[in-house]
Design a protein that fits this description.
heterodimer, A: alpha+beta, BirA Bifunctional Protein, domain 2, 2 domains, 8-stranded mixed β-sheet, 3-stranded antiparallel β-sheet, 12 helices, 13 strands, globular, B: mainly beta, SH3 type barrels, OB fold (Dihydrolipoamide Acetyltransferase, E2P), 6-stranded antiparallel β-sheet, 5-stranded antiparallel β-sheet, 16 strands, 54% strand
């Protein structure tokens, strides 16, 4: 949204008044829950080496001309885990996060406003409950929420479905096929997906997930989809009952992905191993090299309490509450408008 | 052939043997594996909309359409008559192509027709168009809430929400993609 649009059409301010109100409600919710609001750097010397992230890089210079690499953080996660290790207890932050290449399209902006919260001595079932209560609180405890002519009942518990169940229900693919690279490839080819020689299991999984599973999520009921294949959750705990999946969940309303959450991995050795794998993958993919954050690993080593953390996209949340279909309508000076 | 990542909204593709119009495109970075694009494709002949997910490096066949800049003349029955302002050639376009865009057709105004294999397959509207307000209530004095709107009827019969300062007889700019008020026409 640029200033000329607002000047010509003052009714557009409504969205930004609502946005401010939603952010105030979020702060009130977490204050009532006894969470501490924190502010952490968006300019950081290190990042979590997640293989897929396209990052913004810059440089920090001191007065003598010494130059150090610097990044705009794609998530406040490393800072929060250091605070948790330091004994912060429950914390939340409303902050800007940055993802390079996320320009254009209805749901992405290269800098976006993220709500991140961590509940200690809790697992992801409890942060799923947090999501439900937060959405109801923002909606002032009204039982329904309407977006683009569709109405969801948010007063009832949200639907909870595992990734394995969702593939079975919406794509008709059972876990035997889902987790077998050759069988899944054959199934995808049968369905008309164009699978190349270089396409690995992750690629095929994604194509089917995005085309046949995700569009159904949160359409008739707010939906939490959980337990993602291990490859898709480098910072989440493994499900002890099924080691092929990790304890991660996503919240969907009206087919829109609103939040992403983990049962946080607290095992230092395991995290170190996964970081090494992610860095190798980044190298293979030709992505910018990020050094592992030794300080982060040190924090984990010193002891991270059992906890679950959630990242929720505030811009998308505002889109839903303001009944808007494009992120540019809920963000002042969106990337696409200023670059 | 082009990479799926370079597809843009409004492009025409040959998809599973049928000409389709790209009505929407969204990049998606799924976390692992290749980046993908989600497309909404509208069959030019059938009007059916399908959703597809493609890898950004997947190759797709683009259709080379020929764009004709034309003026709208008039409607007769279910046909819409346009004219090429250079050759004065008249082109008839069916209701199946014009569809919902009918309300945006103004006599003498310029539009773009996409032609493929000698057939008009799509009508492209200017993104912003000007219409006169034919009916709206005058704002009540003292109603100074910024952001308040009121309904207005336009010359083409459309009803839109406008800011309180808009008066009957004023020209306003409408976004043809959303059907919403954008600004006053100075």
């Amino acid at each position: 949204m640029n200033w000329q649009q607002l000047k010509e059409n003052p009714s557009l301010w409504e969205t930004f008044r609502l946005r401010a109100e939603i952010i105030a409600r979020i702060r009130e919710f977490f204050a009532r829950e006894g969470f501490l609001e924190v502010q952490t750097p968006v300019l950081s010397p290190r990042l979590i080496p997640e293989s897929y992230l396209e990052v913004f890089t810059t440089q920090l210079k001191d007065r003598l001309g010494k130059v150090s690499p610097a990044f705009l953080t794609p998530s406040p996660e490393i800072w929060h885990k250091k605070l948790l290790a330091a004994g912060s207890g429950n914390i939340f932050e409303i902050t800007k996060s940055f993802r390079n290449t996320d320009i254009g399209g209805h749901f992405h902006n290269p800098e976006f406003t993220l709500l991140e919260w961590y509940r200690v001595k809790a697992d992801y079932w409890q942060t799923m409950d947090d999501c439900e209560r937060l959405i109801r609180f923002i909606n002032k405890n009204q039982p329904t929420l309407t977006y683009q002519g569709k109405t969801l009942d948010i007063s009832q518990p949200f639907a909870r479905i595992s990734v394995i169940e969702a593939f079975k229900k919406y794509a008709g693919i059972d876990s035997k096929i889902l987790f077998d690279a050759d069988l899944l490839k054959k199934e995808a080819q049968k369905r008309g997906y164009r699978i190349g020689k270089k396409d690995n299991w992750e690629v095929i999984y994604n194509l089917i997930y995005l085309k046949e599973v995700e569009p159904h999520l949160g359409q008739n009921q707010p939906t939490i989809i959980y337990d993602f294949p291990a490859q898709f959750a480098p910072l989440a705990k493994t499900n002890p009952a099924n080691p092929r999946v990790k304890q991660r969940f996503e919240l969907y309303l009206f087919g829109i992905e609103l939040a992403d959450a983990y049962n946080e991995l607290t095992d230092y050795q395991e995290q170190k191993k996964r970081f090494a794998e992610e860095m190798k993958r980044r190298k293979e993919m030709g992505k910018i090299k990020v050094r592992p954050d030794e300080d982060f690993l040190a924090a984990l080593k010193s002891g991270l309490p059992p906890c679950s953390g959630v990242a929720l996209g505030i811009d998308r949340l505002v889109m839903i509450f303001a009944n808007k279909t494009d992120i540019k309508e809920v963000v002042l000076f969106a990337g696409e408008e200023i670059f | 052939m082009i990479k799926a990542g370079s597809i843009t909204k409004g492009m025409f593709l040959q998809w599973r043997g049928e000409p389709v119009l790209v009505v929407d495109k969204e990049f998606f970075n799924p976390g692992k594996g290749a980046a993908v694009v989600r497309l909404k494709l509208k069959g030019v002949k059938t009007g059916n909309v399908v959703r597809e997910v493609l890898k950004t490096d997947e190759m797709v066949e683009e259709i080379e359409v020929y764009h004709r800049h034309v003026q709208f003349l008039y409607k007769t029955g279910n046909e819409f008559v346009f004219m090429d302002p250079h050759s004065y050639e008249q082109i008839e376009v069916g209701k199946n192509v014009v569809g919902e865009a009918e309300k945006y057709l103004q006599e003498g105004k310029e539009y773009i027709l996409a032609v493929w294999e000698g057939e008009v397959i799509s009508l492209k509207l200017p993104k912003k168009m000007v219409f006169t307000v034919v009916k709206t209530e005058n704002a009540v004095r003292g109603d100074t809430v910024t952001g308040a709107t009121k309904p207005a009827i336009l010359e083409n019969g459309m009803e839109v929400k406008v800011p309180l300062f808009i008066k009957k007889g004023e020209k306003i700019v409408i976004n043809t993609e959303t059907g919403e008020y954008v600004s006053r026409k100075n």
